[in-house]
Automatic annotation (TrEMBL):
Catalysed reactions listed for this entry: adenosine + phosphate = alpha-D-ribose 1-phosphate + adenine; adenosine + H2O + H(+) = inosine + NH4(+); inosine + phosphate = alpha-D-ribose 1-phosphate + hypoxanthine; S-methyl-5'-thioadenosine + phosphate = 5-(methylsulfanyl)-alpha-D-ribose 1-phosphate + adenine
Annotated coiled-coil segments of the chain: none
Family note: Belongs to the purine nucleoside phosphorylase YfiH/LACC1 family.
This protein's name: Polyphenol oxidase family protein
Domain of life where this protein originates: Bacteria
Single Gene Ontology MF annotation: hydrolase activity
Keywords: Hydrolase, Metal-binding, Transferase, Zinc
One Pfam family, short name: Cu-oxidase_4
């Protein structure tokens, strides 16, 4: 499920990085309740993550449509329990880490997932960026934090924007704005294959097209541990 995804090739071809994407899954009936649907998806997501990443846990952001970015691992007092029964980093829409083996996860269904891989330091990031997060500049915030925490140079970054909703299905072209912000920040490589979540409901969930009765795709990234 996380293999053979061409849009992630720019990261997966780099030594020491592994990025994944779990798209729409058969056999799960979505509801308008996000937490209920995520709870239904959880066993399948856990199975795929265990198979492809050899772990039974991943870090999650609460995803409040802001620009907050947290560095993990974090102490328990900075976490909260989400409605689907799993802990999340409170108030955040992005995660970064330089710690090997710490798997990051972000859920999306029309908003963009943004993967960041630093070829220089090995640090990684994963962001939830829809209309609001893009307007607030979450990509720039993540790059700034990676600079400050890990010594990341923007020119060493490989950044990938995944499938998200785009015109004409959505009136705001936030994908184009993310690309502009990446160029403005001096990102070494920015990749966007232009895939629209609203165009193929066999592969993607789309909150807008399905009028809220939908599931979530799961984006993943890890800095792999050295054997």
């Amino acid at each position: 499920m996380t293999e053979a995804l061409s849009f992630l090739n720019p990261i997966n071809r780099l030594p020491g990085f592994r990025a994944g994407w779990i798209g729409r899954l058969d056999g799960i009936e979505p509801t308008t309740d996000r937490d209920e649907t995520l709870a239904r998806l959880r066993p399948l997501h856990e199975e795929i993550v265990a198979r492809d990443f050899r772990t039974d846990r991943w870090w999650r952001a609460e995803q409040v449509h802001g620009k907050g970015v947290a560095a993990v691992p974090l102490p328990a007092d900075q976490m909260k329990m989400a409605g689907d029964g799993l802990p999340v980093v409170a108030g955040m829409d992005g995660l970064v880490t330089a710690a090997p083996g710490e798997l990051l996860g972000i859920y999306v269904a029309d908003c963009g997932a943004i993967w960041l891989a630093d070829r220089g330091t090995g640090a990684v990031g994963l962001l939830h960026s829809g209309k609001k997060g893009t307007e607030l500049g979450i990509l720039g915030e993540a790059i700034s934090q990676m600079k400050e925490r890990y010594g990341t140079k923007p020119e060493d970054l490989v950044v990938v924007l995944g499938p998200c909703i785009r015109p004409p299905h959505y009136e705001i072209d936030f994908a184009a704005e993310i690309g502009r912000q990446a160029r403005e920040a001096g990102v070494g490589e920015f990749h966007d294959e232009g895939e629209d979540t609203a165009c193929d409901l066999t592969a993607h969930y789309s909150y807008r097209i399905e009028k809220g009765c939908t599931g979530r795709m799961l984006a993943l990234i890890v800095r792999e541990e050295t054997p």
